[in-house]
C-alpha cells in the first residue's frame, strides 16, 4: 500500500457513544467530508428513530449517504459498497483525508476491506430453502450444510437460519461451496485506513441508550411511527424503534411496554456491535470522553508512523 495514499479515518463504536460528534470534529479539523456507514440512516422517511444528525450537524460538515434513498427502494450492502467506493474515488482525489462514521459493522467492512463476491442466487432456491426450514426444521438444513460444506458449517453462525440458508443457496445455485468464495483477493483501494473506536463501560453505554430513547420519544418518535404505520411491512422498517411502536399502534402492547422494548432491543443491538468491534484488532480504542486535542495528537502520530513505514 502506497504511503502517499489518502487516509480514510473510520470512527467506530456502539450506538449512542458519540461517533457523530467526533466525526464532525475530525471533518472540520481536516477540512474534509464524511461518509456515513450507518445503514439505518440511509432512508429519507426515517429520522428521529435512527438518530440522523441534526440540520446543524449536517451543516457543520458535508455528509454522504444520509437519507439518500426511500424505504421503498431495495438497497443492499453490495450496492452501498459500490456507491461508497465511487464517492471515495472522487473525494480521495480532492482530499488527503476522508472521515467514515458508522455503527453498521458489515457496511464499514464493505468499504474498508471489500466484500467477498458470491454468485447470484435464484429466488426460487431461497423460497425452497425457506419451505424446507419451515417443514423440516433448522437441524435438517444444518445437517445438509455439514455434509456439502463442512468448512462453512464450522465458520458461520449455524444457529442463525438466515446464515445457513444463504450458504446452502450459494451451493445449490453454483454447485460450489459457500466457503470457496470466502477470503478472495480484494480489489486495491485508493486509500489506506485508520480506525478509531470509541468505548465506555457497558453500564454507561446502556445508560446513554436509555437517555437517547427518552429524547427520541420527546422529539416525536411516536408521531413519526404513525406516519410510517401503513408501510410497516417494508424491510427497512423492521428495525428497532419502529417495530415496537408499530406493535403499540396495532394494540398488542402498551406504550410503556413499547418504550421498554425499544430500550431493551437497542441494548441488544449495542451488544452485537460491541462483539463485532472487539474483533477489530487494528482499531485504536479510546474512551468516549477523551479530549479532542488528545485524539488529534494520537491520530497524527499514527498517520506519521504509517507514512514512515517502508513500502
Question: How would you summarize this macromolecular structure in one to three sentences?
Answer:
Its EC number is 2.5.1.75. The chain is an alpha/beta fold and 311 residues long. 52% of the residues lie in helices and 10% in strands.
Biggest sheet strand line-up? 3-2-4-1-5-6
What is CATH's topology name of the largest domain?
A: Rossmann fold
Counted up, domains total: 2
- Report the CATH C-level class of the largest domain: Alpha Beta
* Known CATH architecture of the largest domain: 3-Layer(aba) Sandwich
Please tally the β strands and state the result.
6
Largest sheet: 6 strands, parallel
**Ends apart, CA distance between termini:** 7 Å
Q: CATH superfamily of the largest domain, called what?
A: P-loop containing nucleotide triphosphate hydrolases
Write the layout of secondary structure elements.
Elements: E1 6-12, H1 19-29, E2 34-36, H2 55-60, E3 63-64, H3 77-94, E4 97-101, H4 105-112, H5 123-136, H6 138-148, H7 150-155, H8 161-174, E5 191-199, H9 202-218, H10 221-228, H11 243-249, H12 255-278, E6 284-287, H13 292-308
Parallel strand pairs: 1-4, 1-5, 2-3, 2-4, 5-6
Explain how this protein is built.
- By secondary structure, the protein is an alpha/beta fold.
- The protein has two domains: 6-116 and 185-308, P-loop containing nucleotide triphosphate hydrolases (Rossmann fold), CATH 3.40.50.300; 123-181, Histone, subunit A.
- Helices cover 52% and strands 10% of the residues.
- It has helices at 19-29, 55-60, 77-94, 105-112, 123-136, 138-148, 150-155, 161-174, 202-218, 221-228, 243-249, 255-278, 292-308; strands at residues 6-12, 34-36, 63-64, 97-101, 191-199, 284-287.
- It has a six-stranded parallel beta sheet with strand order 3-2-4-1-5-6, sandwiched between helices.
- α2 (55-60) links the parallel β2 (34-36) and β3.
- α5 packs across α6 (138-148).
- The protein is globular and about 60 Å long.
- It starts with 5 loop residues before the first strand and ends with a helix.
- The mean pLDDT is 92.
- ATP binds at residues 13-20.
- Residues 38-41 are annotated as: Interaction with substrate tRNA.
Amino acid at each position: 500500500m502506497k504511503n502517499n495514499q489518502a487516509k480514510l479515518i473510520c470512527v467506530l463504536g456502539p450506538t449512542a457513544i458519540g461517533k457523530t460528534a467526533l466525526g464532525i470534529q475530525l471533518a472540520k479539523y481536516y477540512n474534509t467530508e464524511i461518509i456515513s456507514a450507518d445503514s439505518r440512516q440511509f432512508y429519507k422517511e426515517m429520522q428521529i428513530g435512527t438518530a440522523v444528525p441534526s440540520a446543524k450537524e449536517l451543516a457543520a460538515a458535508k455528509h454522504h449517504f444520509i437519507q439518500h434513498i426511500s424505504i421503498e427502494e431495495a438497497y443492499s450492502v453490495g450496492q452501498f459498497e459500490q456507491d461508497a467506493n465511487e464517492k471515495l474515488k472522487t473525494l480521495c482525489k480532492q482530499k488527503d483525508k476522508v472521515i467514515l462514521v458508522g455503527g453498521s459493522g458489515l457496511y464499514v467492512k464493505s468499504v474498508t476491506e471489500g466484500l467477498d463476491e458470491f454468485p447470484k442466487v435464484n429466488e426460487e432456491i431461497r423460497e425452497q430453502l425457506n419451505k424446507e426450514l419451515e417443514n423440516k426444521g433448522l437441524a435438517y438444513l444444518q445437517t445438509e450444510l455439514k455434509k456439502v460444506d463442512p468448512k462453512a458449517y464450522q465458520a458461520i453462525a449455524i444457529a442463525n437460519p438466515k446464515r445457513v440458508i444463504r450458504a446452502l443457496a450459494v451451493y445449490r445455485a453454483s454447485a460450489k461451496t459457500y466457503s470457496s468464495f470466502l477470503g478472495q483477493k480484494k480489489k486495491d483501494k485508493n486509500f489506506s485506513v485508520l480506525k478509531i473506536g470509541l468505548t465506555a463501560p457497558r453500564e454507561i453505554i446502556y445508560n446513554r441508550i436509555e437517555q437517547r430513547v427518552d429524547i427520541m420519544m420527546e422529539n416525536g418518535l411516536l408521531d413519526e411511527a404513525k406516519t410510517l404505520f401503513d408501510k410497516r411491512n417494508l424491510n427497512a422498517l423492521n428495525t428497532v424503534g419502529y417495530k415496537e411502536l408499530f406493535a403499540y399502534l396495532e394494540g398488542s402492547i402498551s406504550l410503556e411496554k413499547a418504550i421498554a422494548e425499544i430500550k431493551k432491543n437497542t441494548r441488544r443491538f449495542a451488544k452485537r456491535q460491541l462483539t463485532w468491534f472487539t474483533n477489530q484488532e487494528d482499531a485504536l480504542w479510546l474512551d468516549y470522553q477523551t479530549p479532542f486535542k488528545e485524539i488529534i495528537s494520537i491520530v497524527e502520530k499514527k498517520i506519521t508512523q504509517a507514512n514512515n513505514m517502508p513500502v
